[in-house]
Amino acid sequence: MKPLVIAVIIWLCVANLGALILFGVDKKRAKEGRWRIPEKTLFLSAILGGSIGAILGMHLFRHKTKHWYFRYGLPAILLVQIGLGLWLSGVLG
User: Fold this and answer.
1) Domain chopping of the chain, boundaries
2) Is the separation of the CB atoms in 40 and 70 below 8 Å?
3) Tell me, what's the pLDDT at 1?
4) 65 CB contacts (<8 Å, ≥6 apart)?
5) Distance CA 40, CA 74 (A)
6) What is the pTM of this model?
7) Is 51 left (phi over 0), alpha (psi -120 to 50) or beta?
8) What are the pLDDT tens digits along the chain (93 aa)?
9) Do 49 and 81 form a contact (C-beta atoms < 8 A)?
10) How many angstroms separate the CA atoms of 28 and 8, rounded?
11) Angle at 41 between CA 38 and CA 47, to 5 degrees
12) Distances 18 to 33, 70, 76 between C-alpha atoms, Å
C-alpha cells in the first residue's frame, strides 16, 4: 500500500474517532449544564473527515438529532466526501 493511502486511512480513523468523542463530550456537558462545544466545531470535525464518526455520535448519544442542519447536513457532508474520494481515486471521471 502506498504511504499516502496509509496516511489518509490513519487521518480518517483519527478524525472519525475525534468527531465521535466530541459528540459524546458535548452531550455529557449538555446534561450537566456545563460549557458546550460550539456547533461550528462539531461540523468542522465532520468536514475534516470525521463525518461517519459525527453521524454515529449523533445517533449513539442521541445528540443534535432534532436539529435539521445536523440531521441532513452531516449525511450531505458524508456524500460529498464519498464522491470526492471516488473522484480522486479515479473511479469517477
Assistant:
1) 3-89
2) no
3) 79
4) 58, 59, 71
5) 12
6) 0.92
7) alpha
8) 789 889 999 999 999 999 999 999 999 999 999 999 999 999 999 999 999 999 999 999 999 999 999 999 999 999 999 999 999 888 776
9) yes
10) 30
11) 150
12) 22, 17, 19
Cell of 92: 469517477
pLDDT for 31 equals 96
* DSSP output for the chain: --HHHHHHHHHHHHHHHHHHHHHHHHHHHHHHT-----HHHHHHHIIIIIHHHHHHHHHHTT-STT-HHHHTHHHHHHHHHHHHHHHHHTS--
